[in-house]
Amino acid sequence: MIGVGKIKQYSNVLDKPLSKGKQEVSLSAFAFLFSELVQYNQTQVDNIAELERRLEDAGYAVGARVLELLCHRDKGNRRETRLLGILSFVHSTVWKVLFGKVADSLEKGTEHEDEYMISEKELLVNRFISIPKDMGTFNCGAFVAGIVRGVLDSAGFPAVVTAHFVPVEGQQRPRTTILIKFAEEVLRREARLG
Amino acid sequence: MAAIYSLYIINKSGGLIFYKDYGSAGRMDTNDSLRVASLWHSMHAISQQLSPTTGCSGIELLEADTFDLHCFQSLTGTKFFVVCEPGTQHMESLLKVIYELYTDYVLKNPFYEMEMPIRCELFDINLSQAVQKDRVAMLGR
Questions:
Q1: ipTM associated with this complex
Q2: Which CDD domains does this UniProt record tie to the protein (chain A) (predicted)?
């Protein structure tokens, strides 16, 4: 038989080590797939808020799975339990794996204790998308907001996550900010842990 | 000094989906630009039939006294053509760049309906940059 003796044969597929996977995926392929996802959801809804919610739900599923995968593959089966830990995990590790770079910035909200913001000059998912004027403040980054919510929720940090365009002076295109608002219980637990 | 007078993009049925003029030399009002688009579409199709050699894919260059017209047809039948000063160089490569911008910022946009007029902000921004870069490169030659 060809190959016997060269590769260790696993009798059980569950014993096979989890592969690193393909590091690079065609951006065009992803852009077309994402465009189709948005178009499909557009046909199913009546208004923009519904569309945003659907994109967020699609992202939520991705987020939950990404957390499991990264904890097992990159973190040696350890998961962050502190607030700043999980935020920097999302900001660096998750972003690196999904978008090939760490997020531009992570900031704490000045007005409220429970708000944090991850900012990006331009989200990868929005790279080729121009929002028509009549859609107002709709942002396809709702998909990414859903991913972040999925990661945080599965890690035990329930939060409300939304994506916003923030105009920047001197730049034609606005910056995108993912706003994370943690639930009460998270802050209480954080305070208790000290 | 603008070497390019205007840019037209027409869909596979001959309808004008994008028109941009650079400078007053090529400026046309809406009706005239629509007429030019459908006129060129018909001429392009007729030339394929008239060609003495088989396998002709249509007119690529039209040279006149006061202008040149370079045309690029994609595999799907979408035509990109640019009206420019006589003797302008490197229009084919510019058309290819514009085609790439079209595939990126128009076709990957979920809010763009096929064969409809192009209303994509990112396409406009990147198109201006490409034309500007071409203009600068041309001045340097």
A1: 0.86
A2: TRAPPC5_Trs31
